[in-house]
Amino acid sequence: MEGIIYYTILSEEEQKKKTEHMVGEKLLEIGLLKEFGKELKFEPRAKGEHGKPFFTLEPGIHYNISHSGKYVMCIFAPEPVGIDVQEYQTLKFETMLKRMVPHPMIPRILRADNMVERFFNEWALREAYIKWTGEGLSRDLRTIPMDEGTHVLLKLDEGYAGAVWSRNPLTLRMEYTEADISAQ
Question: Is residue 109 within 8 Å of 97, Cβ to Cβ?
């Protein structure tokens, strides 16, 4: 099975404008047309119990959108899928980990040689999981079964972590595209 990730990289000026949501929708529009020959404006959508959007008339087309820092991404797959991207930032790592991972993992992450990378990879994985299942933040991140479904860490620019989660393994294809929203 193939998962296709349409992504763009925002300039610093675009990041300041806080247009990530609109850019994500533009990526959805572009990818839907290029991959499936469907126009977004003609595809009704609804939201699941916890807010995950889906196409009501296209049960075989699943998507998910994420953005952080300069990255905006939209993934398409033939089954439910979750994607997350996280820009590294200065945080109180121990405080965040207490809300994010089971207690025994905290010292292992904090003592890792690549602690910041490991922290953000863990965050991206857990966010991708709850986006895949559609549970959103209703799920305690510490209770995520890391052996359910399958996940992939994305290779992104330094200072970024990204992950995809799905039931079955996906062969991922990355498609960079400009997502001009100035005409909207």
Answer: yes
